[in-house]
Specification:
Length: 271
């Protein structure tokens, strides 16, 4: 990772300074540019795709609707990414959209005979960030839903990204294409940690487990599964099974409920 040394003044009252390095990737700007987008819902979908990957710089070039950022369909498809829509800009020219960007990535389903090299996103990102001098700003360009990018817009780019798809069907919705490229780019930049899905549950104590086993033993005897005169090692084996399972208090209550229902069913059968 390329780093830049920064000098910062020391504490008040002293003339000392301290040096530290700032990873260049943290300063890199990322922008998504939609050219002549015709469907409002796709703009909302793109905003959503960007936000979940931590990006918020969206620029639209000559969209079909001048009020596309405020249209109901756009807002609905954004699914809460309203801050991305609020920050988004609409411009008249591609030159305006690319201001401040130093590395331009076109998107294309198929390679062109002329123009920048066509590469898969992950392959290109690995080379771009491993080159030793990453760009200050990266822009991803997407053409209209019907016609894609114009040749003259592709020619000005450094690379044409092509998402690997099934050979017999490579048609991707605009928002889906943005999602895939945004994900690969975020992963290349370091990614996010996956959140813990299951919360830790407290394990039931030994007393609760012993009480449940005693209750279960009576139920097993009542339904004639366990012979109290020849129990063999059934209950010790069940004890070991539940020790390995480490049930929670809630799960102990469930098992006690099962034992209670077994006892009630056995009593009814014997009447």
């Amino acid at each position: 990772m390329v780093e830049e040394r920064v000098t910062q003044p020391g504490d008040a009252g002293g003339d000392n300074t301290r040096d530290f390095t700032v990873p260049a990737l943290f300063r890199m700007r990322t922008r998504f540019v939609l050219i002549q987008t015709s469907h409002a819902g796709n703009v909302g979908g793109v905003a959503r795709a960007m936000k979940v990957m931590g990006f918020d710089d969206l620029v639209l070039v000559q969209p079909r609707w001048a009020n596309v950022l405020r249209r109901e369909e756009t807002i609905q498809r954004a699914s809460g990414a309203n801050d991305v829509l609020a920050k988004a800009r609409i411009v008249d020219t591609l030159e305006e959209a690319l201001e401040g960007m130093s590395h331009l990535c076109a998107t294309a389903m198929t390679p062109r005979d002329f123009g920048p090299p066509t590469r898969a996103p992950r392959e290109h990102f690995a080379g771009l960030l491993g080159a030793g001098d990453p760009p200050q700003g990266v822009a991803f360009l997407f053409g209209s839903e019907r016609f894609g990018m114009r040749n003259e817009d592709v020619y000005r780019c450094h690379v044409a990204l092509s998402i690997p798809t099934a050979p017999t069907f490579g048609s991707l919705n605009l928002a889906a294409a943005v999602q895939l490229i945004a994900y690969d780019w975020r992963q290349a930049l370091g990614g996010f940690e996956a959140p813990a899905v299951v919360a830790e549950r407290p394990q039931a104590d030994a007393q609760a487990l012993a009480g449940m086993l005693e209750h279960l033993e009576r139920a097993l005897v009542a339904v004639d599964f366990l012979d109290p005169d020849a129990p063999k090692k059934l209950m010790p084996r069940l004890n070991q099974l539940f020790n390995r399972a480490a049930p929670s208090d809630e799960e102990i209550h469930i098992l006690r409920g099962v034992a209670k229902a077994m006892l009630q069913a056995a009593n009814k059968a014997k009447r």
